[in-house]
Amino acid sequence: MSRLSSSGPQTADAPTPEDAFHETAALSDRDREPRHGAAADGPMLAADGTPLKKSLARALRAQKLRALALIAPLLIFVLVTFIAPIADMLFRSIENQIVQDTLPRTTAVVQDWNPDTGEPPSEAVYEALYRDLFLAAEARRHTRLGQRLNYEETGMSSLFRGTGRDVDDFGEANVETLEDLDDRWEEAAFWVELTSGEGGEGVVDAARERYMRLADLSSRSPLGDVWCAVKGVFAETCDVAPEDVDLGFSLSGTFAETFPRTAEAYAEFAVFMALEEGETVADDEPWEAVYVALDQDLRALSPEELAAYDGPNADALRAAQEALAEVPPVDFRAAFLNSDEDWADIDNWRTIQTYSPPYTTGYFLNAVDMQKTPEGPALRDADERIYGLLFQRTMFMSLVITFSCILLGYPVAWILANLPMRQANLLLILVLLPFWTSLLVRTSAWKVMLQQQGVINDVLVWLGLVADESRLIMINNQFGTIVAMTHILLPFMILPLYSVMQTIPPSYLRAAKSLGATNWTAFWRVYFPQTVPGIGAGSILVFILAIGYYITPEIVGGTTGTFISNRIAYHISSSLNWGLAAALGTILLVVVLVLYWAYDKIVGIDNVKLGG
Amino acid sequence: MNREPDLAATDTQEAFVAFERVQKSYDGETLVVKDLNLDMPKGEFLTMLGPSGSGKTTCLMMLAGFETATHGEIKLGGKPINNIPPHKRGIGMVFQNYALFPHMTVAENLSFPLEVRKISKSEREEKIRRALDMVQMGEFGGRRPAQLSGGQQQRIALARALVFEPELVLMDEPLGALDKQLREHMQFEITNLAHELGITVVYVTHDQTEALTMSDRVAVFNDGKIQQLAAPDVLYESPENSFVAQFIGENNTLLGTIKEIRNEYAVVELDDGELIDCKPVNVSKPGERTLISIRPERVEFNKERLQEGAHTLKAEVLEFIYMGDIFRTRLRVAGKDDFIIKTRNAPDQRRLKPGEQIEIGWLPDDCRALDA
Ligand SMILES: Nc1ncnc2c1ncn2[C@@H]1O[C@H](COP(=O)(O)OP(=O)(O)OP(=O)(O)O)[C@@H](O)[C@H]1O
Ligand SMILES: [Mg+2]
């Protein structure tokens, strides 16, 4: 930044009278002009006086925005189809909200239970379970939870399904007592009158939220609001969001205070009617759980306390209290045990307790053949371990496949790179040919080739190399998988190798030979090291593709040649244990990242070349 | 063998490198090298000069063993080498693109030819050090080729070709990629080294200045044949045919017919009827068409400096170019307006003005009548 430029307007000539005008103009110009050269006096200024950095940023902004707009479609596509699913998978592998959402009250109270006593939990826990399970059974959500817990403890699924059927009948005697006492207890309108009023909104809102979590109803996002507004323009209506659905019912605050359990149960009933059935409480008599709750509440109140209650139908309540005093209180534990002995099983309860938190390491422990025990995580019994073996096998076979690809692909790439253009192109087409055939067809072709009555065995028998009765078993085992996958992944090795070899001028080999190296030394010391980046790139491609391969091992792998990905697929589509599948997938992802990192450390990732 | 006389006459020593009637064809249809005969004594610096595609690299590759001659014999130290594989020929080679191994450091590059010769480690280090010092690159042993400038790479390539002390070194346009200044510097270094070490060098270039300044002898290639093989000054001053005359240095040509040959001079009648004196080179009888060649710096327009009775030509000045050390003037002579003369920038030198009419002339020895 020269001083020359800051004295720019002034010329070397001495000012003449004619110049005076220009001179003053120039001087005043110069005063306004930022001092370009004044580095010591603050930031560099642009011609219009703004800091240079700022004006540069402004000049580049439009350019950057345009660039961003160009890649925006891809960016969005990648975010939606790649990043989001991976994030979802990572989340699923630890997510465990279903237990808490389905059994909110039970999971809260079962925490106080100490499994080491060897005793099943207290009556309060069973009561909480009754209330949770009743609602869950009505919403048909209990089987889902049973399935989830069944991953951890076999038998849980049938336990929940069976008891879900019976739970209506719990406390049957008490319910009947109430109904027999007064016909009005069976009238919907009577219940509405009993419970209606003002001030119980808190209870209702809590019930609504509980139900939404149970039934997986999500509230509407801001994006949804916008969408609905757009639809509104075209005179289309959105469904009312679950949090906005009108229940047609308002709970009395005094009632809720005096009869908390009843209020809660009735509020749940009201929410269920509105959200699930599209009706209101006025349309139907309440479900059994409400009667049982009222029974509980009446027993908890002394006659004096009840006398003080002055809400509607207070007389009916007093009569009910007297009548119910004649029958024993509901014994929830007995009712559960009556439904299924296994409700006394400590292990089942321990499972519920262990898997109460909304997040769990359980899936991951499972994925590495471990389980939660009272003493903390521990390895499963030897005969129950499968994933460790599968991971090992996946690694090992992927490595074997990668090495086979290097061995077979290197000479081919070399020939490709050294042939004249015409022949090289022809050969390249042959290399690429497999890409134009369906993967399924190629794999099935190997099935035809390798099976015991297949082409290869036939030829071997015909040549007399193999006896007819001892034909080789080459399919439905590791060998078959390795052969088929090497064939399928070979192009991914050849192409990067080829493109790297193409960039190595023949003069290197000539130079080496002119320096006295034999053909082999010239190859090994000069040519081969320069192809290492290609081998690296090809190996990374092949290995990472192999480690997650699914279709080919599924078709030709039998039982001994399958990969971890086949197990993941099984959990996704058959056992529906998505959490475990996600945990296995996450481990696979981490393994690949670790290997990639190790490769970077050892070989250096900038040594990977996919071309030129 | 029926050798061409000038090849055999150059020296009486036993030829170290010899091409004998060598032919080469890549495709079986055209001969890239036609009947090449060349003898080189030990310690000579020979340059192959020629236009692109004239077969220079092909000759080098045949000598190095990367191409086989289709016909004829190549001898090294008196023995035919047609059947010796390249790595056993012991010929150092500097490639056009240097061909330094990119995955090795400079020292490893230099160590490579020694390692394959199973030379002990201490001796290797000593030789590498000496070779690097020789090209003044002693500091750079630990660098990768990619971390060097073009000229430095070139010097390393040179050091690598010399480190195993070959008796014959081939260089294929090693200075092609360098800028003028560096190229001149390297030309100097290479010739110095070659003479110091007493090695025989075959050097390929298509830069004629390079060829003239560096070599003991220059072989001018064209069309797969050696057009002339001679020392630089001979080549410049006595080109044997019009190709050499035009290829080497700047050259003025005029077409004409031999009118008579007297003593050792010929009188040539130019196409516009003017007469000039020339030295006949490869013309023999009157009536023959000829291309006469005069170097621009041998043309004289100052009458006082011309020989008594010399033929002169009329010329019109078209352009005067000031080039610092010399003046370059373009003239119209005998109807051609690409006649160039060069004059030294001296205090008493006249600066010609465009449009000026002058008379030019030259010593008959400087004007050569060549084949048309
Ligand atoms: N490998 C090859 N196959 C076929 N033709 C070739 C081959 N190498 C060279 N030629 C041909 O042989 C002729 C001579 O080539 P050469 O490389 O010897 O030329 P050169 O004198 O070194 O030229 P340059 O100054 O451009 O390097 C050219 O016409 C070229 O096309
Ligand atoms: Mg060449």
TrEMBL record, chain A:
Mind telling me which SUPFAM superfamilies this protein's record contains?
MetI-like (SSF161098)
Q: Where in the cell is it found?
A: Cell membrane
User: Which InterPro entries is this protein grouped with?
Assistant: MetI-like (IPR000515), MetI-like_sf (IPR035906)
Domain spans labelled ABC transmembrane type-1: 391-599
* GO CC, one annotated term: plasma membrane
Provide this UniProt record's keywords sorted from A to Z. Answer: Cell membrane, Membrane, Transmembrane, Transmembrane helix, Transport
According to the UniProt record, where is the region Disordered?
1-45
- In this chain, composition skew of type Basic and acidic residues spans 28-38
Q: Where is the composition biased (Polar residues)?
A: 1-10
Q: Which parts of the chain span the membrane according to its record?
A: 67-87, 395-417, 424-441, 479-500, 532-551, 578-599
Pfam families for this protein: BPD_transp_1
Biological process GO terms, please? transmembrane transport
Q: Which PROSITE patterns match?
A: ABC_TM1 (PS50928)
Bilayer disposition of the protein = Multi-pass membrane protein
Q: Which family does the record claim for this protein?
A: Belongs to the binding-protein-dependent transport system permease family. CysTW subfamily.
**What's this protein's name?**
ABC transporter permease
Task: Tell me which species this is from.
Answer: Rhodosalinus halophilus
TrEMBL record, chain B:
Q: What is its EC number?
A: 7.6.2.11
UniProt entry keywords in alphabetical sequence: ATP-binding, Cell membrane, Membrane, Nucleotide-binding, Translocase, Transport
Q: Which domain of life is it from?
A: Bacteria
Short name of one Pfam family: ABC_tran
- Please list the coiled coil stretches: none
Q: Which gene encodes it?
A: potA
Quaternary structure note: The complex is composed of two ATP-binding proteins (PotA), two transmembrane proteins (PotB and PotC) and a solute-binding protein (PotD).
Q: Which InterPro entries match?
A: AAA+_ATPase, ABC_SmlMolc_Importer, ABC_transporter-like_ATP-bd, ABC_transporter-like_CS, Mo/tungstate-bd_C_term_dom, P-loop_NTPase, PotA-like, Transp-assoc_OB_typ2
Q: Provide the family line.
A: Belongs to the ABC transporter superfamily. Spermidine/putrescine importer (TC 3.A.1.11.1) family.
Its lineage opens with:
Bacteria, Pseudomonadati, Pseudomonadota, Alphaproteobacteria, Rhodobacterales
Q: Which organism is it from?
A: Rhodosalinus halophilus
GO molecular function annotation: ABC-type polyamine transporter activity; ATP binding; ATP hydrolysis activity
Q: What's the protein here called? A: Spermidine/putrescine import ATP-binding protein PotA
Enzyme type, top EC level: translocase
Residues forming the ABC transporter domain are 17-248
Q: What does this protein do?
A: Part of the ABC transporter complex PotABCD involved in spermidine/putrescine import. Responsible for energy coupling to the transport system.
A GO-annotated cellular component? ATP-binding cassette (ABC) transporter complex
Q: Do you know which NCBIfam families this protein is assigned to? A: potA
Per its record, the protein catalyses:
ATP + H2O + polyamine-[polyamine-binding protein]Side 1 = ADP + phosphate + polyamineSide 2 + [polyamine-binding protein]Side 1
Classification via SUPFAM superfamilies: MOP-like (SSF50331), P-loop containing nucleoside triphosphate hydrolases (SSF52540)
